[in-house]
Amino acid sequence: MLLVHKIELSPNNAQRTYFTKACGVARFSYNWALSEWKKRYEANEKVNEALLRRKLNEIKTTEFPWMREVTKVAAQQAIKNLGNAFSRFFKQQGKYPQYKKKGLHDSFRADNGPAKVGGNAVKITEKRIQLPRIGWVKMKESLRFEGQIKSVTISRKGLRWYAAITVECDCLPHERKNQGSVGVDLGIKQLATLSSGKVYEGAKAHTTQLNRLRRYSRALSRKTRGSKNYGKSVKKLAILHAKISDIRTDNLHKLTTELVLNHSQIAIEDLNVSGLIKNRKLARHIMDQAFFEFRRQLVYKSQWYGTELIIVNRFYPSSKLCHVCGKKNETLTLAERKWTCPCGATHDRDLNAAINLENAIKINTASSAGIHACGENSADMNAKVLM
After folding, report:
1. Is 126 exposed, middle or buried (0-12, 13-18, 19+ CB in 10 A)?
2. Where are the alpha helices (DSSP H) in the chain?
3. Is 350 a catalytic residue?
4. Among residues of the chain, what percentage have pLDDT more than 90?
5. Is the Cβ–Cβ distance between 207 and 288 less than 8 Å?
6. Residue 175 is assigned to a structural domain of this protein
7. Which residue in the list 49, 288, 308, 350 is annotated as catalytic?
8. Local structure of 230: helix, strand or coil
9. Based on the domain organization, do 214 and 106 belong to the same domain?
10. Do residues 163 and 211 both lie within one domain?
11. Tell me, what DSSP letter sits at residue 96?
């Protein structure tokens, strides 16, 4: 099993310069390959990423000698990434590849091939990592996983540098406790309400930092583009955006890990996030809670630990159904947070929805009709979709 641990680095000035150069080489190689791909395609010539990598190796010494200042893997891997992007595009799994811009998603990759003098190209000891051509770089924490290091991706977020270390492991860092099933209802006010009654508040990092974001953005708009003050404002705003992203991601990881480790079955609703954010009054709050990222983490963590994840159809009236008698409240609006059923039961909207989602697991167990099973041995990410 391949696991990735992303660790913040503490590089010195020379190492920061090298990282910036390597990201530039990776970006240039990607854009160069994309241009060549388009030219060859328009000329009805054969084109693939392997052909482009060979051509770059032939011409870079004479035409791009500055590329030799960094590891050759940075350029080669960038072209491989372009090949993967086109593969996804042809399979209708992604959009047509676009040119990369400086300062946006800067990264490069170093594979753990054999080093020139014994050992491997990438080594880790305590809180240090050795990279090709740059040597030892300090890390903020130790690697959590034990196993064979396959590759390292160096990336920049704001003003900070990170190493995403891919490790081939034989075992997972935690063990799942089999504590039954749970339904999870996502919301804006509270991020997640469980059928057990437990409520998780969302980090709402963007909302809490919104005034500061607006102030920094206005200050940036007043600066002259290209000036030193403009550069300072850009860095200040980037740091704040990185902080918001880190707070949100940390909160989601803690929640999804707790859910997967403590339940053998989890039911969530198949929310149409792209449709929900078209409501301009709720869009910012929905994106701040990161519903799609919540589901993405649940999916792959469920696959890791063998938890059964059931995705309930988005048209299932989980909020409107009374979980006591099963009667549907046709007049329930989004503004009503509590409602009373004719049978006498009073419901909290979110808790009732979570209980109904958990009941969907029992329906799934009782009957397999209308269910696309994707279990542990399936290729569909260990999820089941309740139609």
Report:
1. exposed
2. 13-42, 49-63, 72-90, 205-208, 210-221, 228-262, 273-276, 283-289, 291-305, 349-366
3. yes
4. 44
5. yes
6. no
7. 350
8. helix
9. no
10. no
11. P
Please say if the pLDDT value at position 337 is more than 90: no
Given this model, what pLDDT does residue 37 score? 93
Of the candidates 36, 49, 106, 185, the residue annotated as catalytic is 185
Are 92 and 137 in the same domain? yes
On whether the CB atoms of residues 36 and 63 are closer than 8 A, the answer is: no
pLDDT digit string, tens, across residues 178-219: 778 899 999 888 899 998 889 998 889 999 999 999 999 999
Q: Which residues of 85-118 are buried (b: 16+ CB within 10 A; e: fewer)?
A: bbeeeeeeeeeebeebeeeeebbbbbbbeeeeee
For residue 174, the model assigns a pLDDT of 79
Measured between alpha carbons, how far is 130 from 124 in angstroms, rounded to an integer?
6
Q: How many domains, in total, are found in the chain?
A: 2
Catalytic residue among 49, 269, 288, 308: 269
348 given a catalytic annotation: no
Same domain assignment for residues 16 and 63: yes
Residue 231, classed as helix, strand or coil, is helix
Count of CA atoms in the C-beta half-sphere (13 A) of 316: 26
To the query of whether residue 45 is one of the catalytic residues in this protein, the response is no
Model confidence at 156, pLDDT cuts 50, 70, 90, reads very high
> Is residue 163 a part of any domain in this protein?
yes
12 and 159: one domain?
Answer: yes
Distance of CA 322 to CAs 116, 308, 355, 361, 364, Å?
Answer: 68, 25, 10, 16, 19
Q: Are residues 154 and 23 in the same domain?
A: yes
Please check whether residue 176 lies inside any domain of the structure: no
What pLDDT does residue 373 have?
Answer: 35
Instruction: Write down how long the chain is.
Output: 387
Q: Which residues have a Cβ under 8 Å from the Cβ of 146 and sit 6 or more positions away?
A: 167, 169
The amino acid present at 128, given as its one-letter code, is: R
The pLDDT-based confidence of 370 (bands split at 50, 70, 90) is very low
Domain enclosing residue 308, as ranges = 181-386
CA nearest to 78, candidates 34, 132, 141, 41 = 34
User: Both 150 and 266 in a single domain?
Assistant: no
Same domain, 11 and 43: yes
